[in-house]
Amino acid sequence: MTMVYVTHDQSEAMVTSDRIAVMNKGRVEQIDVPYELYRRPRTRFVAGFIGRTNLLTGCLRGPDLDFGPFRLPLHALAAAGELPAEVHVSIRPQSIQLSRERPPQRDQHVSLDATIERRSYLGESWDYHVSLGSMPESVRVSARPCEVFEVGQRVHAEIDASQVTLVQ
């Protein structure tokens, strides 16, 4: 049976749908299964509308995408075709891991120094806002309840480049 259900409740849409159409100002932004819609949004609007995300802008620098204090290798991103000089990405808060010790270097992972700016305890997780070097805005990181860091604490933030999504 085919059914069309209209809702602004993203959680409800994710749970009840086989496919979701996200619309913005009367225009379809993306149609996909819930898992792919969340994991690989195609636009900044969809990335921000479905769940929390960090929207960053970087510049192409050879084989990397340069964000200032860090670079991500383009080969780790699902980048098809020619990219513009300025590139937008979505990084979900759970795609960044925080630790007290510098993690071992791993392929497709970037580790950088960070500082905890603020935090909120949500019961099932912590919601941290961390500064990454000279970036003008903080990024959000989700951590398990047992991963407790204090405001002002210096930590290491590890970004899994395979979880970074290019968006328009």
Question: Would you write up a description of this structure?
Answer:
The chain contains three helices and twelve strands; from the N terminus they run αββααββββββββββ. With 168 residues, it is mostly beta strands. It has two domains: 51 residues, no CATH class; 117 residues, Beta Barrel (OB fold (Dihydrolipoamide Acetyltransferase, E2P)), CATH 2.40.50.140. The strands form three sheets. It has a five-stranded antiparallel sheet. The chain has a five-stranded antiparallel sheet with strand order 7-11-8-9-10, with no helix packed on it. Strands 1-2 form a two-stranded antiparallel ribbon. The chain is globular, with a radius of gyration of 17 Å.
How do you describe this structure in short?
With 168 residues, this protein is mostly beta strands. The chain has helices at 10-16, 34-39, 44-49, and strands at 20-24, 27-32, 54-61, 64-66, 71-73, 86-91, 96-99, 109-121, 126-131, 139-143, 154-160, 165-167. It folds into two domains: 1-51, no CATH class; 52-168, OB fold (Dihydrolipoamide Acetyltransferase, E2P), CATH 2.40.50.140.
Distance between the termini: 34 Å
CATH top level label of the largest domain: Mainly Beta
The share of residues in helices is 10-25%
Radius of gyration over alpha carbons? 17 Å
CATH architecture of the largest domain: Beta Barrel
Q: Helix tally? A: 3
Low-confidence blocks of residues: none
What spatial form do the alpha-carbon principal axes imply? Answer: globular
CATH topological fold name of the largest domain? OB fold (Dihydrolipoamide Acetyltransferase, E2P)
Q: Helices and strands, in N-to-C order?
A: HEEHHEEEEEEEEEE
CATH level-four homologous superfamily name of the largest domain: Nucleic acid-binding proteins
Which strand order do you get reading across the main beta sheet? 5-4-3-6-12
Tell me the strand percentage band: 35-45%
Major sheet description: 5 strands, antiparallel
Instruction: Give the beta-strand count.
Output: 12
